[in-house]
Amino acid sequence: MTTGLFALLLLQAAGAPLDEGVLVVRVDTLEVARESFRISHGRLSRGEAGWTLATTIRYDRARPVIVLAPILEVNGDTLPATLQYDVADPRQPSRILGELGRGRFTVRLVARATERAREFATGPRTVVLDDSVFALYVFAAWQAASEPADLTAIFPRALRRDAVQIRDLGPASTTLNHDPARLRHITVEGEQGTLHLWLDDKGRLMKVEIPSRHLVAERLAGG
């Protein structure tokens, strides 16, 4: 069991509050979006135990305003179990539904005049990610270990699957909201180059950095 997942299990056993917070997303120094998220643990819609992440990110610094709002359930093995994902884009609003089957995760995308579906083969390490939704990366981070590991990453909006590699580099010095911080450093190697995930000692996602896009998503203080 990885360090991040073990920390979350300890929080649940201790009756700790559910994790929730806000990520401020900046490109260079310009704020482009804010993402509000909440993680809960309990009985999933399919009856098994697991975690639910509900997150909403609003890109409103340019027109058109776009709001992305996925609700992702993952089971006790941290495999994606179900997904309900609303995309509020005036050019093409859509809803995405996903469900885990035997050895596959089926994604169905429903838009105004079209409907598309695709099945993705899953392995023992599969995550649902999005290029523009950052709280989702917490489930990838939970699976990181000191040795590099391969993950299957499903990107539902793009109906694509990528192979990524994740590694836990351990505690390292960084900054959070301009203040010095000591956080657990995890790297994700994929299509966007190297992503940097930063977690606190409770396994909570504190920061996401994507150098190739000059993008940083930082958790607001107190969240």
Describe it for me?
The chain has 223 residues and is mainly β. Helices cover 7% and strands 60% of the residues. It is built from 2 helices and 15 strands. The protein has a 15-stranded mixed beta sheet. β1 and β2 (30-43) form a beta hairpin. The longest helix has 11 residues, at 3-13. 32% of the residues are buried. The model is unreliable at 10-17 (pLDDT under 50).
Concise summary:
This protein is mainly β and about 220 residues long. It has helices at about 5-15, 135-140, and strands spanning about 20-25, 30-45, 50-60, 65-75, 80-90, 95-100, 105-110, 115-120, 125-130, 150-155, 160-175, 180-190, 195-200, 205-210, 215-220.
What descriptors fit this protein?
15-stranded mixed β-sheet
| Percentage of β-strand residues | over 45%
Mean pLDDT: 91
Can you give the helix content as a percent range?
under 10%
- Give the end-to-end Cα distance, rounded to a whole number of Å: 26 Å
Poorly predicted parts: 10-17
Beta-strand segment tally: 15
Radius of gyration: 17 Å
Main sheet record: 15 strands, mixed
- Count of alpha and pi helical runs: 2
Order of helices and strands: HEEEEEEEEEHEEEEEE
What would you call the structural class? mainly beta
**Tertiary shape:** globular
Q: What spatial order of strands do you see in the largest sheet?
A: 8-7-6-5-4-3-2-1-15-14-13-12-11-10-9
